[in-house]
Amino acid sequence: MTTNCSFPNIPDDRLKRELLPETYQWCLTNGLVMYPINFQQEQTMIAPVTLYPTPLPRRSFESAEDVQKIYNELYAKISQDSGGWLTNETIKLANFDSEFTGKLWKLYLEAVKNGITQKLKLGVFRSDYLVDKRSTDIKQVEFNTVSVSFGGLSTKVGQLHNYLNETGSYSLGTKFYQQEIPTSESDSLLAKGLAAAVKKYDPVLENPIVAFITQDNERNVFDQRVIEYNLLKEYGIRSIRLTLDEVQERTYVKDEKRRLFVKSSDQEIALVYFRAGYSPTDFKSQISWDNRLVLETSYAIKAPDLMTQLSGTKKIQQLLTDELTLSKFIDDESTRRRILSTFVKIYPLDDTPLGKQGKKFALESPHKYVLKPQREGGGNNIYKGDIPDFLNKTPVDQWSAYVLMELIEPNSTEGNIVLRGNEMFKEPILSELGIFGCILFNETEVFYNEYAGWLLRSKFNSSNEGGVAAGFGCVDSIVLV
Ligand code: ADP
Ligand code: MG
Ligand code: MG
């Protein structure tokens, strides 16, 4: 079923003559841009975007915003490892997923052995939802604890759609939408979260630096730069950008506290902000792993540290759907209910009773499910009818590395237009809402816990996945209905 919402109905010739040039020029002027695949430095193009904002029920939007601080605190508590729960679960998982979770876990153990001098940690999170088409309730797709992106560009796409609406580009000189097209404040709220960590690191330190750890050939530079420029403009905090492999070349560690400094300027790095290191391909060689350890054991605050990164696995999300487990972290029953109401069923594929049920569903009714490994960044899941074959080719003792998740069914929207490169698509889309949050904490206390804006990403109805940088989706904004 699709919803046919009201979108401007503009004939193709006028679209090409008026609205598209208007849109392209706004995007390029305002940095709503992304490098194309296999780019040269001098090439840019507009980021994949929708031409119009996509309708979303106000009720769903606000309920996702309202629950974010509870989610921030939940994941902070998990990372604090109260009762050793995260440790226990990660050790089990590390055995099944030795290739990545296992390596992160080993690195964490080495860091503990070398001594972790900085107890402050910054979580920069994004909780992603689809709106269930029957109830309009939000249902969580996943909770991201590392390298969450599009906080910068999300603001810009909201500004673009407001600009096009207010200038009458959608509707021959008059405003097409009378309803609110909100603009996400993630561009400044994420900078505010990073600044809070820098301030707490050392309130009197002069010229503190934030180190953005980025991927080689990063295509999403401009999304990151928005946050970097806001840090400078609003808080006077400077940043450097470096890849994992460049850490030893460009930084050094000094004294027993292991404070981290920039080599070229001798400025102290207060915060290491990871926009890389979430996937095995980000670790090109042993050097990358060694450098990740240098950062983890340095006195700079990490956003995130390894434990916080490890709290964001799909396995942890699956375990939290059990109320008894959730009650380890949330005492208050009504708060627990609010979190539980955002979950769909997620099954392990192990020998527990729930795991046996999961295996049965995976093999007998796969069309209702998605199978997820412990990976980030899009393109890793196995969908519906592909699940049984995939599992049959996987040794049974490795099935525990996956979780089986009920598919959420959002309404698809017809009438929007997706711009990718210089192409335009008029296919039905599905939209995923992400809510950002920042939380600064140590082993026992929380010092800062804030909502940090939102993101709407849309993808073609015909595609299973929605990652924008992975090439499956586009950045969208919202018209509240
Ligand atoms: P990643 O960490 O790689 O982003 P996700 O869990 O977000 O992994 O899955 C990738 C995409 O798969 C999502 O953006 C969404 O489009 C789709 N997807 C994941 N889980 C579900 C689900 N339960 N129901 C419907 N679609 C889903
Ligand atoms: Mg995702
Ligand atoms: Mg993810």
Summarize the structure.
The protein is of the alpha+beta class and 481 residues long.
Helix and strand topology:
Blueprint: E1 2-4, H1 12-30, E2 33-34, E3 45-46, E4 49-50, E5 54-56, H2 58-66, H3 68-79, H4 85-96, H5 101-114, E6 121-131, E7 138-144, H6 151-166, H7 186-201, E8 209-214, H8 221-235, E9 238-243, H9 247-250, E10 251-254, E11 259-262, E12 268-274, H10 286-297, E13 301-303, H11 306-310, H12 314-320, H13 323-326, H14 333-340, E14 346-348, H15 353-364, E15 369-372, E16 382-383, H16 386-393, E17 403-406, E18 412-414, E19 418-420, E20 423-425, E21 429-441, E22 446-460, E23 473-476, E24 478-480
Parallel strand pairs: 1-18, 5-24, 8-9, 8-12, 12-13
Antiparallel strand pairs: 2-3, 4-19, 6-7, 6-21, 10-11, 11-12, 14-17, 15-16, 15-17, 19-20, 21-22, 22-23
The structure holds adenosine-5'-diphosphate and magnesium ion (2 copies).
Structural features, described:
This protein has 481 residues and is of the alpha+beta class. The chain folds into two domains: 54-157 and 180-342 and 422-480, Glutathione synthase, substrate-binding domain superfamily, eukaryotic (Rossmann fold); 345-407, Dna Ligase, domain 1, CATH 3.30.1490.50. The protein is built from 16 helices and 24 strands. A hairpin with a 6-residue loop joins strand 6 and strand 7. Helix 7 (186-201) packs across helix 8 (221-235). The longest helix has 19 residues, at 12-30. The protein is globular, with a radius of gyration of 22 Å. The structure holds adenosine-5'-diphosphate (ADP) and magnesium ion (2 copies). Residues 128, 130, 141-142, 344, 370, 372, 376-378, 380-381, 405, 407-408, 432, 465-467 line the site of adenosine-5'-diphosphate. One of its GO terms (cellular component) is cytosol. Homodimer. Mg(2+) binds at residues 142, 144, 376.
